Automatic annotation (TrEMBL):
Pfam families in the record: tRNA_Me_trans (PF03054), tRNA_Me_trans_C (PF20258), tRNA_Me_trans_M (PF20259)
GO cellular component terms listed in the entry, alphabetical order: cytoplasm
Record has NAD as a keyword: no
Family listed: Belongs to the MnmA/TRMU family.
Name of this chain's protein: tRNA-specific 2-thiouridylase MnmA
Record bears the keyword Disulfide bond: yes
Cleaved signal peptide residues: none
Region feature Interaction with tRNA, mapped onto this chain: 159-161, 314-315
HAMAP family per UniProt: tRNA_thiouridyl_MnmA
Its EC number(s): 2.8.1.13
UniProtKB keywords: ATP-binding, Cytoplasm, Disulfide bond, Methyltransferase, Nucleotide-binding, RNA-binding, Transferase, tRNA processing, tRNA-binding
InterPro entries membership: MnmA-like (IPR004506), MnmA-like_C (IPR046885), MnmA-like_central (IPR046884), MnmA-like_central_sf (IPR023382), Rossmann-like_a/b/a_fold (IPR014729)
Primary gene name: mnmA
Source taxon at top rank: Bacteria
Amino acid sequence: MWNPFFLDEDFVKRKVVVAMSGGVDSSVTAALLQEQGYEVIGLTMHHWDACAQEATAEMCQSNTAVAKAQKIAEHLQIPFYSVNFETDFRQQIINRFCADYLSGKTPNPCAVCNKKIKFGLLLEKAIELGADFLATGHYVSLVDADGRLFISKGADRNKDQSYFLFSLNQQQLSHCLFPLGELNKDDVRQHAARFGLQIPKTEESQDICFIPDGDYVKFLQQEEGFETLSGDIVHVSGDVLGKHQGTYRYTIGQRKGLGIGWKEPLYVVAIDASKQQVIVGEKEHLSCPEMTVEQCCWAIAEPKETFSTTCRIRYRHTEVPVTVEPCGHGVVKVVFATPQDGVTPGQAAVFYADDRVIGGGWIQ
């Protein structure tokens, strides 16, 4: 079978758009594909105005992804474009992020962005530019098995990002390239040095891109609808133990910052946004034997019968054995072989068969 990552001289030179952020991963992605014979175009999306959070406009300009990516594109001598998706990003990502918190969920905006923006609007733009593929610096691989494409875990397990790409469909995957799937971070930095890419070594960011300082509470307080959400902190027994200043300040499994005294350590075990209550309990109350997952999408044929597989319920969670029971309309009931702590509405539940992502959905 022809491997799309490496061009054979008998094939026409293929065009690939690389989603460039100015960071080492996407920059090395572009350089590797260029070295392998692709016609490479750099494309950066302007999707959030971070300038408002910078000290000066000059400081903002020097730190934008667009400026950094353009500098890399000039070094590689490839065409470069930027596209503005601010309006779409606000409507499809930020508005949902806020709505999830208002409803008592803990959202996962990166997984939504991959589906809607990066491999949605950006892929459409790549195709408009005449590209065959959109390539990104995700640490995942793409596997063709029995005529279907699957996202597979990256070789660098510490960087594996397969969890965030569970919702990509076959049409999207058919236009994707992930050149870093078989590399680890040290390999990537060695390639960067080999290509003469002068990219400072920075700490890996765990922050949401539109909340660069990590203070999501401050961000939400600047949005409409979060002004009057105070209420009670309630023990699972029904006793009111204290007051809170907004359900959005809490997430399932949280222990610190509750501001209440109790004979045993207490954890957030549920959030009832309709009653503006944060429900707390002892550690045993975190244990969850099953969950409902909605809006499921599948890389395999959509299951009609109950089956066993493994499931990851958050990014840094190790997959655990589960039984999945289809309920119709994109909903499944998931029963854990061993009850799990921290099952959080709004997070993604991703199903795996060995290293391959076979489907996933949103914890209800």
